[in-house]
Amino acid sequence: MPGRKSLWKLMDLGNKQPDELERMLATMPEEELVDFYWTYEQAAADLKDEDFRTYLDPELTEDAIDDLAQWIVAQGLNYYEKVMLDPSKIPPRLPDGAVPPPWTGLAFRTYRQRYGTPIRFREDPPPPRT
Asked: E strands along the chain, which residues?
């Protein structure tokens, strides 16, 4: 399931059936797990540019900005595109009661449990098969 198109399908699934997405991450092939992790991370990173920071609460820490960006990605393609197309639509902070999504953390932990190493960069070779 490479690329952003599959990321948005997985976010839709995560919003409707979080247990199913968690199960999928646990069984995803190595290459797909790496692709999911880095595609999600890049989508979140795109929301941290200066164009967006202008509209954020100035007291937000880097961790809080990361949580907000991760949360926006988890809301799905429609919400993400709305914010990307108009940076003024970014919430100034994580909405009350909102929780940062667990998806990249689960992918990272799954990878570490399986391969005994942090998740690799896309351009790095996969770990040897055992």
From this structure: none
- Give 86-117 pLDDT, tens digit per residue: 999 999 999 999 999 999 999 999 999 999 99
- Where are the alpha helices (H) located in 46-126, listed in sequence order? 50-53, 62-74, 77-85, 103-115
Spell out the residues 6+ positions from residue 81 whose beta carbon is closer than 8 angstroms to its own.
none
The pair of three-digit structure tokens given for residue 112, joined into one six-digit string: 């570490």
DSSP state letter for 59: T
Q: Which amino acid makes up residue 128? A: P
**Inter-residue contact 47 to 84 (CB < 8 Å):** yes
| Cβ atoms 35, 1 nearer than 8 A | yes
Neighbours of 114 (CB within 10 A): 14
pTM equals 0.92
Q: How is residue 98 written in tokens? A: 């909102």
